[in-house]
């Protein structure tokens, strides 16, 4: 980022039925629909959701999204 630039970080949670990678892509895509100047994303947390038998039902990520303020 250039000197004098101000950025903000917001947390986003996203879920996918297929993979962690897809959950990350979903979260970033959604952030880009609402935020301008998205510059990076950090995966803060990853977890899987299970049914009562121990089978994975979905993949969830918590992302920290950085965007530069206008």
Strand order of the largest sheet: 1-3-2
Radius of gyration: 14 Å
End-to-end distance: 13 Å
Helix-strand sequence: EHEE
Total count of strands: 3
Main β-sheet description:
3 strands, antiparallel
Number of helices: 1
As a percent range, the share of strand residues is over 45%
Fraction of residues in helix: 10-25%
Helices and strands: which structural class?
Answer: alpha+beta
Q: Please state the overall shape, judged from the principal axes of the Cα atoms.
A: elongated
- Please tell me the overall pLDDT: 95
Uncertain segments: none
Give an overview in words:
This protein is α+β, with helices and mostly antiparallel strands. It has one helix spanning 20-34; strands at 7-16, 38-50, 56-68. A 3-stranded antiparallel sheet has the order 1-3-2, covered by helices on one side. The longest helix is centred in the middle third of the chain and has 15 residues, at 20-34. The radius of gyration is 14 Å and the shape is elongated.
What is the secondary structure topology, with strand pairs?
Blueprint: E1 7-16, H1 20-34, E2 38-50, E3 56-68
Antiparallel strand pairs: 1-3, 2-3
């Amino acid at each position: 980022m250039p000197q004098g630039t101000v950025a903000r970080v917001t947390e986003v949670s996203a879920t996918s039925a297929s993979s962690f990678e897809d959950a990350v892509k979903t979260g970033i895509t959604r952030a880009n629909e609402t935020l301008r100047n998205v510059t990076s994303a950090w995966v803060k947390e990853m977890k899987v959701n299970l049914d009562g038998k121990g089978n994975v039902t979905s993949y969830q990520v918590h992302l920290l999204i950085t965007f530069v303020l206008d």
